[in-house]
Fold each of these.
Amino acid sequence: MFLLATLILAIASGTPIVKAGPLSRPPKFEWSSTKALIAFGDSYTYVQGTHGHQNFSFIGDQFDLAYDAKTLLSNKIVQNQTATAEGGPNWVQYLTDCGVHKGLTSPQRCKKQLWDFAFAGADISTEYTPLHHNFTVSLVDQINQFKQYGHPALQRNLPGFRQDKTLIALWIGINDINDSAKYSVDFPTFYKNLTDILFESVETLYGLGYRSFLFMNLPPLDRTPGNQAKTSPSPNATQVGWYNAALADHAAAFAEEHKEAQVMLFDAHARLTAMLDEPHNYGIVNTTNFCAGYDQPDISVEYEKYGCPTPLKRYFWFNSGHMTSHVHEVLAAEVERLLLQA
Ligand SMILES: *[C@@H]1O[C@H](CO)[C@@H](O)[C@H](O)[C@H]1NC(C)=O
Ligand SMILES: *[C@@H]1O[C@H](CO)[C@@H](O)[C@H](O)[C@H]1NC(C)=O
Ligand SMILES: *[C@@H]1O[C@H](CO)[C@@H](O)[C@H](O)[C@H]1NC(C)=O
Ligand SMILES: *[C@@H]1O[C@H](CO)[C@@H](O)[C@H](O)[C@H]1NC(C)=O
Ligand SMILES: *[C@@H]1O[C@H](CO)[C@@H](O)[C@H](O)[C@H]1NC(C)=O
Ligand SMILES: *[C@@H]1O[C@H](CO)[C@@H](O)[C@H](O)[C@H]1NC(C)=O
Ligand SMILES: *[C@@H]1O[C@H](CO)[C@@H](O)[C@H](O)[C@H]1NC(C)=O
């Protein structure tokens, strides 16, 4: 079953869009009874773990991929000004309400547990784009690592863990499209190739028994502060649209091939575009720039000292490439609305 955010509204209004399959009924996905969220991706999604690589991961890095169940299950999510790429909680933390509060949180203590294997700076694979650092774990390697260490640990050692009470969330492509924006390739084919590799990894997760998948598409990255200042943004809106079309095609094809999977694509592009176009509806006043002092320890109080007329939460952009924690909070609420309707 494949659900696109916009199509969900059709379900809500009573128009059937899901054909009853003759062979097997998809297990009903229920956000309210979902016990865990397992996340993969890049800096938009990563959380800091006490066993992680500081500023990059919850656990380990490319030179330190192996871990045992005890290490994973005793690992804690750190929340403070430098523990995410947003200066505060990100979308998966708000969505699960796990690791939102300052200090340390054991995922096991959360009503919805967040097991987050995203790595800041990740691209999909080294096949088409280079690693940002030699310790970066690409999406493909995040999922290989999960297959080898994370999944067995959760399945054997986490009380009550079940794949059918778990949602897999993937948000990736942000670094890929940026790193490759100036390549001389046929972009629609190139993006199809990238998403081919992405879905080979999704297939691995399916093989481990996971059936509920949430994909996030690319934000309007042609509207970062840097790109707004250029006459020719890079990536441009056409490229972002091509990537998102490749992702949507692939998600639909994956759902077609796996009738018992629940495949959800959240149109982050549409939601974030709406926020940029009508910022006042979301308490945002600044969509064009970011506050230069965003990473200063006293920024929450002394923003004016850094030439910023308003607090960070009134900005859309946190820095040159990341949205503020406030934007993540709004987005998470909209993702939750989609999940509750699925
Ligand atoms: C993590 O990033 C912060 C800035 O956000 C920096 O001050 C700190 O040195 C970094 N830590 C490491 C280990 O690189
Ligand atoms: C955030 O927590 C990490 C890990 O506990 C610590 O190293 C870092 O200094 C903290 N940063 C701030 C700004 O409190
Ligand atoms: C990783 O890169 C750093 C800095 O570029 C370098 O000092 C280090 O030797 C590299 N590590 C390995 C194992 O290649
Ligand atoms: C896409 O993948 C195909 C098959 O591997 C390859 O022949 C082609 O060169 C790739 N194209 C781009 C633009 O990456
Ligand atoms: C965006 O960039 C692509 C690749 O260079 C190009 O084909 C396309 O025409 C550009 N779109 C716009 C609106 O400039
Ligand atoms: C947006 O932020 C920039 C950088 O802090 C600032 O110079 C500008 O005045 C702000 N614009 C508005 C409308 O607040
Ligand atoms: C995108 O790439 C450019 C260089 O091409 C870099 O300056 C910028 O920081 C990158 N943006 C993000 C969000 O990584």
Amino acid sequence: MPANLSPIQKPNAAQSWREQAAQRYSLVRGHSLALAAPLSAEDQCIQSMPDASPTKWHLAHTSWFFEAVVLVPHAAGYQPFDQRFFHLFNSYYESLGPRHPRPQRGLLTRPALSEVHAYRAHVDAAMQQFIAHAEPAAWQAVAALVELGLNHEQQHQELLLTDILHALSCNPLLPAYEPDGEPALRLATAPAPMRWLERPGGQVDVGYTGEAFAFDNETPRHAALLQPHTIADRLVTCGEFAQFIADGGYQRPALWLSDGWAAVQANGWQHPAYWIAPGDPRAPLAHWQVFGLHGVRALDAQAPVSQLSFYEAAAYAEWAGARLPTEFEWEAAFDAPGISQMTGHVWQWTRSSYDPYPGFRPLSGAVSEYNGKFMVGQLVLRGSSCATPAGHARPSYRNFFPPAARWQFTGLRLAKDAAC
Ligand SMILES: [Fe+2]
């Protein structure tokens, strides 16, 4: 199944709340298995770097979340599948006990993939039982946690794809996750020349509007003050980024932040991750190619550039005589007339540090660790990507990664101060 064709869960007024909850749970959980289906058991066990997790771990960890956060505390008589899994598949929740080291998740050849599938089935059966028989008052007490668990699973669905893409990129054979199908980032139509949209200064309200679901890091809604600026109507393309490379962008320290230039030197970056230079022995052709979920394809000059670190995005913006938008400029422009590609292509680096909003309070209980404790040393990305499950994005969504991360579908849109 293509990554961006996950089921969209639309409430059906004719269904009871139990039917709606059971169906939504089943659809989201089933999509994780569908995403893993093209992969062999060997593929699903591998961990290619400390930041990336094996597919099998994602499948188990998302089940652990429901088990540890919903079933154990709230479902009377629930019997865990295997007590040892609380240690193996806890990610970072200090309040839920010790855990297996993150960089060593790829060493977990046991439990076998079949056991992880049985674990998922065990948790799913208990969750469906809980949904079917919970008293309405009891359901109200945990409905928000179940919804958090489903949105958590959708986040891991995107990570499952980006993590396996990194693993496959490390294989000299460059195997495709999904050999057939359209390239995930191909645009429906050729992008027109980029246009600058004038945006006014002044006070805007940003953050969660109160509709549907949001993570705690999108709250509280509050006022932000913008200066007059312009923002690009579309994303930067591969063809435009190729001009930056051809102009010596990766060899000109004046374009780079100090930490970014250090990263270029330390890592030998000369192009976005997964770009294959002409003559590369892994896929020797005379033109640029890009490795993606559909394997090696010719570089599409009109597709949004992806797999960029924040440092590369910022250097490109400097080269282009522009800058990255702040996360609030981006959110305020979400519905601006003429703007395009805000979601569904690549996450867009912003010039905003990942900080708590004024008045931010984390969720209570174990899930207080979900977002708040990561609010240092990272940059906010807005929008969503081709790997984000359908229906998961919204204007106030805040993704975040360290500035050197480049294994996600990450690109950029330009902005300028009004006086420039
Ligand atoms: Fe997680």
Amino acid sequence: MDRGPESASNAGAVTGLAENPAEAKKLVFVCMNVDCRVRGASEVMERLSTRVQNECSQANGGAGADNPCGNVDVRPYMCFGGCHDGPNVIVYPDRVWYAEVKLEDADKIVDQHLKKGEIVKPLTGKIEKGLEDMIFNLLDFGIY
Ligand code: FES
């Protein structure tokens, strides 16, 4: 069975992703351990945090025209175990793992995924499926 991501709305059938991307609370986890930081995770985290704070926070009035991505938090994560493919970013509960994320990719994650519900496909599929599932399950159990 092909489990590759097609779009965030298709992923919803598998992951429970809301039809309207503005409906669900999202957590954007950025690995801030050493391997990801030496590849630029700090800059990715800062870009994501700044854009989400300015464009996606509840302080902007909740979901709506002024806040197209709804309620989103950007949080550091200790390590996802995909250390050779960092910087790594996971959008939860969408269960989407972005690897080798560059600074400009942070903008794509905000503009395409958070605002439009579209998975940034070129940044996915780089992590072994068993590891992805293990980390997603940990997040499901609230381990973060
Ligand atoms: S250092 Fe980022 S996944 Fe381990």
